[in-house]
Structure formats: C-alpha cells, structure tokens
Amino acid sequence: MAANDDDESTAVIVGVLAGIALAVLAVVYSGSSTKAVNVAKAPTDEVVDIAPLGEPLAKVYFAVGEARLTDADMAVVALTLQALAANSRTIVLLSGFHDPSGDARQNAELARARALSVRDALVAGGVPADRCKLRKPESNIGSGSPEESRRVEIRVQ
Fold it and tell me: 100 in helix, strand or coil?
C-alpha cells in the first residue's frame, strides 16, 4: 500500500511540474509573440504621397538647425493626441518644411528629422505608428517668415 501511495504522489508531482512547465512556455511564447507584433508596428520612416486636406491642426516651429521638441511643442503634441483620440479612424499627416537657401539635401534631411521628432512624440503619447504618416520634406518658397521655413505642419485627416 505504501509503494502505491508513493507512485501516486510521484504521478501528482510530475503532473504539477508538467503543468508549470507548460504555463512557463505559454508565457514565454506569448511574450515573444507580443514582441513580434511590436516590431511589426514600429514607426516607419516611409514617406507617403497623401495630399494634405484643409488647414493644419497645428504647426511646430523649430530653432535654426534644430530638430528637438521643446516643452511648448509638447503642448502642440498634446492637442494632436486629443484630436486623434476623438476619432480612431483618422491619421496624422506630418509635413516638414525648409527654406531654399543652403544645401538642399541637408535642408531636406533636417526637415525630415523635425517631422520624425513630432512623429516620435505622438507614438510615445500612445498613437499607433501606422496612424502617423510622413510627407516628403517641402521647401518653403515665397514670402513667409524665416520661422515658417522651420516648421512641421500637423494635419489630422
């Protein structure tokens, strides 16, 4: 009888350990699935050819040669977050601008870096990366102020 009890106890212990092992594998597997999903939803630097509609919701202005957001810029980002939260089917279209003076390639890279800064702040604020679209950097030609050449326009459409 005692040998029979030992066999039953061993079977129960093996069953419990097998259940724990399966639970651990499930957690590890689901964690790796989540990582794969997050990688798939990582922000993309791809430029889209979507026509901007209407007036911009907001504009973020940058200092000369800068692409970092200030605390005041984060208030503009917060406004955009509210507009996006109101309708989950909208996208945010970001257009970076630069002036025509100087090296055109460097200016375009800076305008793009500015748009990416705004996009990264929106994603950090909870906006899914696939709702943030970047337009090709544009040159500000005409009679605007110098600040207008150092902006990112934000449109929710």
Answer: coil
